[in-house]
C-alpha cells in the first residue's frame, strides 16, 4: 500500500508539472512584451498570431520553455497517461489476486503473492519468483505486481489463465508420492518442484517421472561415520528387493550397508549439513537410530532420489493396506523433524550438572547428541501419551538448579530438566513437546516405544 501511495504521489507531481507548463504555453504572448525581443522571435510570434505557436518563449516572451523543454513536457504528459493506465492495470491485478486460487502462491501456497509470471499466467510469491527467474525468461517471464508496470497483453494473460487453470495444465499428472513444497520447506524442494513443473514438464508427461520406476542409482556425498569427511558413494534403491544399498567403491560387490526402505526416513536439512542440497537419512539399527548425512551437487538428483524413496514406500503401503487411499497413505512416506536445537540437559541424579546437547524431535522420539552430525544419538527418549504420566512443565522442581530458562519433562520412568537461553525458545520447545504428548498412541508408536525400552538394557545407549 505504501508503494502504491508513493506511485500516486509521483503521478500527482507529474500531472501538476505538465498542467502548469501547458497553461503557460497556451496563454499566448502580448505584443507589448514582444517588442524588445530579437527580430527572429518576432517572426515566430507573427506566425503565432496566425495560428502558429512560437517555440521557446513563454507568455511573458521569455525563453523559459525551450524546444527541449517542450519535448520533455510532452514526455511527462505521455508518461502521466501511461502511468495512469499502468496504475489501472495494477489495480486490476490486485483484484485478480483476490480471486479464488490466486490469493496463494501457485508454487508454495504462501498467502498474498505479489509477483506474477505473465507468460505462464500464475501469481507467485517473491521467493518463488526468484526460482522462476532461474528458469530463464524463455520459460517464465516474471514481474512484480507492486513495482513493475504491466502492459495490457500481460494483464490479459493473468486474467485468462490464473493459478487454477495453470495448475490444471502443469500439475495434471502429479504423482501421489511427489511432495508438493510449502512455504517453510527448504529451497531445494521449492526450486526443483518449479523446474519439474515448467522446465522438465514432468507432471504433464508421466514418462518423465524417473522416480516412479522403482529403481534408482545415484552418486551422493556421504559423511563418514568415523572421520566426518564427505566422500562420494554409490547409492542404489530397488523396489523389487525393498532395499537401499550403498557401496564404498564401484567395484565392490557387497554393499557397505543394506537398509529396508520401509524403515527408512529422509528429510532435508541444508543448514545442518552445510549444503543447500543436504539431507539426513535415519533408520533403526540394532535398536538405535542411525543417522546418515548426505548431499548432492545437483538439486534435481537429490530431489528425484527423495521422491523415489517416497514412491517405493507408497507402493509398499498400498500392498500392506489395500483398502486405504493413496492420499491417506501419502502422509506417511517421509517425516520432517518437529524441532531441532541446542539445550542444556541434566543427568538423572540431582548432583548431575547441565550439559549442552543437540536435540532432535522426530515424531515421538526425542534424541540428543553431542554433535548435530553424530551418526548415533547419545540417548533417545520415547514420548508417550499424557494420560500415561507424560508431562511438560515450566521451571524445575523445588530444590533443583535451573539453567537459563528451564523446563521439566516427565516420562514414565524419570524427569528430565532442560534449559535454553531464551524465553521464546522455551515456549516453543514446551509447545511442541506438549502437542506430541497430547496425541494418543498409534500401534506404530507402541512398537517404537518397545524398541527404545529394549535399548535401555544396553550400557552404551543408556539414557542419562
Ligand atoms: Zn511461493
TrEMBL record:
Residues 90-211 form the Arf-GAP domain. InterPro entries: Arf-GAP_dual-PH_domain (IPR052589), ARFGAP/RecO (IPR037278), ArfGAP_dom (IPR001164), ArfGAP_dom_sf (IPR038508), PH-like_dom_sf (IPR011993), PH1_ADAP (IPR037849), PH2_ADAP (IPR037851), PH_domain (IPR001849). GO terms for cellular component: cytoplasm; plasma membrane. Residues 336-438 form the PH domain. It comes from the Eukaryota. The keyword tRNA processing does not apply. GO terms for molecular function: GTPase activator activity; phosphatidylinositol bisphosphate binding; phosphatidylinositol-3,4,5-trisphosphate binding; zinc ion binding. Keywords: Cytoplasm, GTPase activation, Metal-binding, Repeat, Zinc, Zinc-finger. Its main location: cytoplasm. Gene3D superfamilies: Arf GTPase activating protein, Pleckstrin-homology domain (PH domain)/Phosphotyrosine-binding domain (PTB). It is found in: Cytoplasm. This is Arf-GAP with dual PH domain-containing protein 1. It comes from Caerostris darwini. The lineage of its organism: Eukaryota, Metazoa, Ecdysozoa, Arthropoda, Chelicerata.
Amino acid at each position: 500500500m505504501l508503494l502504491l501511495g508513493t506511485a500516486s504521489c509521483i503521478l500527482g507531481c507529474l500531472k501538476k508539472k505538465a498542467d502548469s507548463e501547458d497553461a503557460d504555453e497556451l496563454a499566448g504572448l502580448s505584443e507589448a512584451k514582444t517588442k524588445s525581443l530579437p527580430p527572429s522571435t518576432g517572426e515566430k510570434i507573427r506566425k503565432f498570431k496566425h495560428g502558429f505557436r512560437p517555440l521557446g518563449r513563454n507568455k511573458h516572451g521569455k525563453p523559459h520553455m525551450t524546444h527541449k523543454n517542450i519535448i520533455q513536457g510532452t514526455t511527462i504528459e505521455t508518461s502521466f497517461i501511461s502511468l495512469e493506465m499502468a496504475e489501472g492495470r495494477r489495480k486490476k491485478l490486485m483484484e485478480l489476486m483476490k480471486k479464488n486460487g490466486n490469493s496463494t502462491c501457485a508454487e508454495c501456497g504462501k498467502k498474498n503473492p505479489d509477483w506474477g509470471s505473465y507468460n505462464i499466467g500464475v501469481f507467485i510469491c517473491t521467493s518463488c519468483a526468484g526460482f522462476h527467474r532461474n528458469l530463464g525468461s524463455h520459460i517464465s517471464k516474471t514481474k512484480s505486481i507492486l513495482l513493475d508496470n504491466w502492459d495490457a497483453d500481460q494483464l490479459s494473460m493473468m486474467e485468462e489463465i490464473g493459478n487454477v487453470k495453470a495448475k490444471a495444465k502443469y500439475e495434471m499428472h502429479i504423482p501421489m508420492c511427489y511432495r508438493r513444497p510449502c512455504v517453510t520447506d527448504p529451497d531445494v524442494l521449492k526450486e526443483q518442484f518449479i523446474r519439474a513443473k515448467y522446465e522438465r514438464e514432468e507432471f504433464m508427461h508421466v514418462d518423465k517421472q524417473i522416480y516412479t520406476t522403482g529403481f534408482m542409482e545415484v552418486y551422493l556425498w556421504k559423511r563418514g561415520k568415523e572421520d566426518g569427511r564427505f566422500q562420494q558413494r554409490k547409492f542404489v534403491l530397488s523396489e523389487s528387493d525393498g532395499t537401499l544399498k550403498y557401496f564404498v567403491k564401484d567395484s565392490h560387490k557387497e554393499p557397505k550397508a543394506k537398509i529396508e526402505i520401509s524403515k527408512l526416513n529422509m528429510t532435508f536439512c541444508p543448514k545442518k549439513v552445510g549444503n543447500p542440497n543436504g539431507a539426513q537419512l535415519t533408520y533403526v539399527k540394532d535398536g538405535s537410530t542411525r543417522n546418515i548425512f548426505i548431499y548432492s551437487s545437483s538439486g534435481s538428483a537429490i530431489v528425484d532420489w527423495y521422491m523415489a524413496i517416497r514412491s517405493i514406500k507408497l507402493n509398499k503401503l498400498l500392498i500392506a493396506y489395500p483398502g486405504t487411499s493413496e492420499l491417506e497413505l501419502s502422509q506417511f512416506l517421509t517425516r520432517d523433524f518437529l524441532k531441532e536445537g541446542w539445550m542444556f540437559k541434566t543427568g538423572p541424579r540431582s548432583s548431575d550438572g547441565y550439559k549442552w546437547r543437540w536435540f532432535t524431535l522426530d515424531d515421538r522420539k526425542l534424541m540428543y547428541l553431542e554433535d548435530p552430525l553424530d551418526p548415533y544419538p547419545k540417548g533417545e527418549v520415547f514420548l508417550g501419551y499424557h494420560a500415561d504420566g507424560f508431562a511438560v512443565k515450566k521451571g524445575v522442581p523445588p530444590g533443583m538448579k535451573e539453567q537459563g530458562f528451564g523446563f521439566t519433562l516427565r516420562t514414565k520412568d524419570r524427569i528430565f530438566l532442560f534449559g535454553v537461553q531464551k524465553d521464546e525458545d522455551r515456549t516453543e520447545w514446551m509447545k511442541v513437546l506438549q502437542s506430541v504428548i497430547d496425541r494418543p498412541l498409534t500401534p506404530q508408536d507402541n512398537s517404537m516405544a518397545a524398541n527404545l525400552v529394549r535399548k535401555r538394557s544396553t550400557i552404551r545407549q543408556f539414557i542419562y
